[in-house]
Amino acid sequence: SYAVVNSTTTTLVYGSAELEGKNSTDSVYLKNPELGLASFPFLAITKQTGISSTFDGILGLARAGSDYDNGPLFVEQARAAGQLTAETVSFYMDKASGTNYADFGPW
How many CA atoms lie within 13 A of 92 on its CB side? Predict the structure, then answer.
């Protein structure tokens, strides 16, 4: 259930991109009900520059301590909720076959 937490505009910079929005929360489930957060904090974007208009969003999947660690991280929050035993995520992307997936955990 989406909710605006703070009506003050927040600005984040990701490389050459600049995002403005409102601090919000929503239910985020990657595998319902095993892996999800009922109230995940994120920035609801109201204005963006430097990112393609077809880009959907950033869901806290940056590496902790990286230049792009500007908000809450999904794996940190899932571990704190007892849904993961380690703050890890790995991605597999194969353009030729179109096979893509993300593994969270270990469980």
Answer: 8
Which token pair is 20? 């403005």
Question: Whole-angstrom Cα distance, residue 42 to residue 4?
Answer: 10
What is the pTM assigned to this prediction?
0.72
Residue pair 45/21 in contact (Cβ under 8 Å)? The answer is yes
DSSP, res 63: P
38-85 confidence digits (pLDDT tens): 999 888 888 989 887 776 666 777 777 777 667 788 889 999 999 889
Which residues, in sequence order, are bridge partners of residue 48?
A: 19
CA distance 81 to 34: 11
3-state secondary structure at position 88:
coil
Cα–Cα distance measured from residue 63 to residue 100, given in angstroms and rounded to the nearest whole number: 19
